[in-house]
Specification:
4 helices, 5-stranded antiparallel sheet
Length: 231
């Protein structure tokens, strides 16, 4: 099995990796020839990405769900009292925003670090820039689902890890109905942009995946993941 990348696949693990980089790069950076500007830029890039993933993105996902619930309540709910709008998002300690390409710049910096004549395994272990051998047998794909705004309304975004397989077969059921195969994905992300079963009525969608190789579905089904899709 080839060495997997030193950089984690999941966003949660990426946050941990970058948090370690923020702590260790000011210490190890000068040892591998990085300038103060390179170090401060990489730290600022990392802190920006960490905040967006941990604070900004999660808060907006929750607000999107609240907005969908509020819209449905106003459209089809009952009651005689005025229901106030959900509170607006306020962030008190946002870091300085950075230009696009944070992770690309971090990757380029790591390549420079590894090419330094002073780079050692000890430094690599400290910075987290040494990959580990992955001998795990992956019985099912790993995947996540989330919702976002598309051209014609809300859509579902699926990301997945293939672990050397050609792709994944995607099954879905809506509102506890029957399971159906809705597509095969070889590249990520993959989007479910089907219209709602009932216009302007939010629906539950559940997803499960299996391996797909050379036109054949194989392996076990993944655990089910569920999202609610609004208008």
């Amino acid at each position: 099995m080839p060495n997997q990348s030193y950089f984690p696949a999941s966003e949660a693990d990426r946050v941990l990796w970058l948090t370690n980089l923020v702590a260790k790069l000011p210490i190890q950076g000068p040892n591998v020839g990085l300038s103060a500007t390179e170090i401060s830029d990489a730290v600022a890039d990392s802190l920006c990405y960490i905040w967006i993933v941990k604070d900004w993105y999660g808060a907006h996902q929750q607000k999107a769900l609240e907005a969908t619930t509020y819209k449905t309540l106003i459209a089809n709910g009952t009651g005689s009292d005025i229901v106030p709008l959900p509170a607006s998002l306020v962030f008190n300690q946002a870091p300085a925003m950075r230009t696009p390409g944070v992770l690309t710049r971090i990757s380029t910096l790591v390549q420079k670090i590894k090419l330094s004549p002073n780079y050692t395994d000890s430094i690599g272990q400290d910075l987290g820039t040494i990959g580990v051998q992955d001998n795990t047998v992956h019985l099912v794909p790993e995947f996540t689902v989330s919702t976002e705004r598309g051209t014609d309304g809300e859509r579902v975004k699926l990301t997945f890890t293939k672990y050397g397989h050609d792709g994944v077969s995607i099954e879905c059921r809506r509102n506890d109905g029957s399971w159906e195969v809705i597509g095969v994905a070889m590249l990520k992300p993959w989007y479910d942009e089907r219209p709602l079963l009932v216009a302007n009525s939010p629906e539950s969608r559940e997803y499960r995946l299996r391996w797909w190789d050379k036109g054949t579905v194989s392996g076990e089904l993944t655990p089910v993941q569920r999202v609610t899709v609004g208008a």
